[in-house]
Design a protein that fits this description.
The protein is an alpha/beta fold. The protein has 2 domains: 177 residues, NAD(P)-binding Rossmann-like Domain (Rossmann fold, 3-Layer(aba) Sandwich), CATH 3.40.50; 156 residues, N-(1-d-carboxylethyl)-l-norvaline Dehydrogenase, domain 2. It has 14 helices and 12 strands. An 8-stranded mixed sheet has the order 5-2-1-6-7-8-11-12, sandwiched between helices. Strands 4-3-10-9 form a 4-stranded mixed sheet. Helix 5 links the parallel strand 11 and strand 12. The longest helix is centred in the middle third of the chain and has 18 residues. The model has no long low-confidence stretch (mean pLDDT 96).
């Protein structure tokens, strides 16, 4: 008999969503590459602990490393870093039921990769903007609530989407469905470019965005993402303060300033002060998702003859930090703004 939910990637996002569903009695199995994390989740004496200002609880669940997975599941909730998507899809494909689907809980346009590898009819898209961080083996902080949007990648409103929506509301009561998931994903790319920029410095998200001298940089980065989205035939949608219309060609400086102020207001009270990208660079000392999440803005732009110098400069700077050739400094943002 096929089992129900396989959460592939039990870090900040997958771990939090999976823990909530497990707490309600859902059949949830976790998969992760971190051996100590896997051991903690399945240990009755430890389990997966969710901490933070939103909720505090513990669940124990089946947990496996990828090589240990056997059998089939009706649904796979994919929550690995974007640059691990293809590898994860090839590993999970034999364990996905023929009529099952993969739900992407990732940043970027990972649905494109998933659809190519398992078939578009077996892929469901999602946009998430809640704040969480992996603290260590068996421990995740759920720092702040945020938008959760679900959608079929072909825009259809299907029974399986409606069913998934009811379950996801067990995690986020204000989760919604949409027939425009690509609009949300492109919206997140614009906002994500700002978070990648924050990661090259030391200030937190709110303090970084609030720097008035960086407004031209925010307009350039988000503007490039919006311009490419429009060329793709996608009208990006906003969320949690980010308004794509404020960064589209011809938008006023006042509109951008108002959107930035709204993003600062959303992020200011959150327990998660820095982006996950910043944590990758400053704390975990590992590669970021930049090549699969932000670089595609410029790559897709090139197919339309649209130059994205701001995004390309940011990608190059992230690489320099990853390679130990550049320190993380708030001055990096000033340098980006002057380019």
């Amino acid at each position: 008999m096929d089992r129900d939910i396989l959460v592939w990637g039990a870090g900040a996002i997958g771990g939090t969503v999976g823990a909530y569903l497990r707490r309600t009695g859902r059949d949830v199995t976790f998969v992760d590459i971190a051996e100590e994390h896997v051991a903690a989740i399945r240990d009755p004496g430890r389990g997966l602990v969710i901490t933070g200002p939103i909720d505090t609880f513990r669940v124990v669940a089946p947990s496996l490393r990828p090589a240990e997975v056997e059998g089939r599941w009706k649904r796979v909730f994919l929550a690995v870093k974007a640059h691990h998507t293809e590898e994860a899809c090839r590993a999970l494909a034999p364990h996905l039921a023929p009529d099952g689907y993969v739900l992407s809980l990732q940043n970027g346009l990972c649905e494109r990769i998933i659809a190519r590898l398992v078939g578009p009819e077996r892929c469901v898209g999602a946009f998430v903007n809640f704040g969480a961080d992996w603290l260590g083996a068996g421990e995740i902080i759920y720092a702040n609530r945020g938008a959760v949007v679900l959608g079929e990648i072909d825009g259809q409103m299907t029974p399986r989407l409606a069913s998934l929506h009811e379950e996801m509301k067990l995690f986020e009561s204000e989760a919604i469905t949409t027939d425009r998931i690509w609009s949300y994903l492109w919206g997140k790319l614009g906002y994500g470019s700002l978070l990648f920029a924050q990661a090259v410095g030391q200030l937190g998200i709110a303090d970084c965005l609030a720097r008035p001298e960086l407004l031209p940089l925010w307009r350039r980065l988000a503007g490039e993402a919006v311009t490419v989205a429009l060329a793709e035939g996608v009208e990006p949608l906003g969320f949690n303060g980010y308004d794509p219309d404020a960064f589209r060609p011809g938008a006023s400086e006042a509109a951008a300033r108002a959107s930035v102020a709204a993003m600062v207001a959303f992020n200011r009270p959150n327990a998660k002060t820095h982006s996950g990208v910043w944590r990758d660079l400053a704390v975990r000392k590992r590669r970021t998702e930049v090549d699969v999440q932000i670089a595609p803005i410029a790559e897709i732009g090139a197919t339309h003859g649209i130059a994205c110098p701001g995004v390309e400069a940011l990608v190059a700077m992230i690489h320099e930090i990853e390679e130990g050739k550049r320190p993380m400094s708030d001055d990096n943002l000033v340098e980006l703004a002057r380019r």
